[in-house]
């Protein structure tokens, strides 16, 4: 009968599980005193290392700031006052002063910066990249066809990105400043580099 069959199934299921639960089934290894001592020692060592690391990072930051102050402000100022570009120390080490050219462009000013660079003949230095995002499930074969099928089949949108490599920007700032210096030498009054390039020109002393 149906009730008898259910009873037999319940009996079979009961055989799969232990009818008694012993304490041995929940025995856990009790840590020894040596292991607990190791945990405490390593935790204390971790705290010490973290404190030392924080102090070292703070000291390193202060040293970098001081190095920048000396190499980019203090020494260049004194060397310019006495008309020195390089100098040999008593121990044979040499210090030399050279100009550094830095520039950058804000993302929301890329188009205006491109127009300015074009007027100066440096427009080609700006990269015009098209980046696309697509599903990772597209196969290599499909990627070969992606150029013509990109929008119609996959609905992939392009993201346009303008950029100027930092090394190119340094060169542009240097060349622009050289042109300005030459114009001043001819008695002209040239316009300074447009602030849109965020030009930063300073002297830096190196020690070898």
Which secondary structure elements does this structure contain, and how are they paired or packed?
Layout: H1 2-15, H2 33-81, E1 86-88, E2 94-102, H3 110-120, E3 126-132, H4 140-144, H5 146-154, E4 158-164, H6 166-185, E5 200-207
Antiparallel strand pairs: 1-2, 2-5, 3-4
Give a description of the structure.
With 208 residues, the protein is an alpha+beta fold. The chain is built from six helices and five strands. The strands form two sheets. The protein has a three-stranded antiparallel beta sheet with strand order 1-2-5. It has a two-stranded antiparallel ribbon with strand order 3-4. The protein is flat.
| Extended strand count | 5
The secondary structure category is alpha+beta
The share of residues in extended strands comes to 15-25%
**Helical fraction:** 40-55%
**Strand arrangement, largest sheet?**
1-2-5
Radius of gyration: 36 Å
Notable traits:
6 helices; flat; two-stranded antiparallel ribbon; alpha+beta; 5 strands; 16% strand; 208 residues; single chain; three-stranded antiparallel sheet; 52% helix
Tell me briefly what this model is.
The protein has helices at about 1-15, 35-80, 110-120, 140-145, 145-155, 165-185, and strands at about 85-90, 95-100, 125-130, 160-165, 200-205.
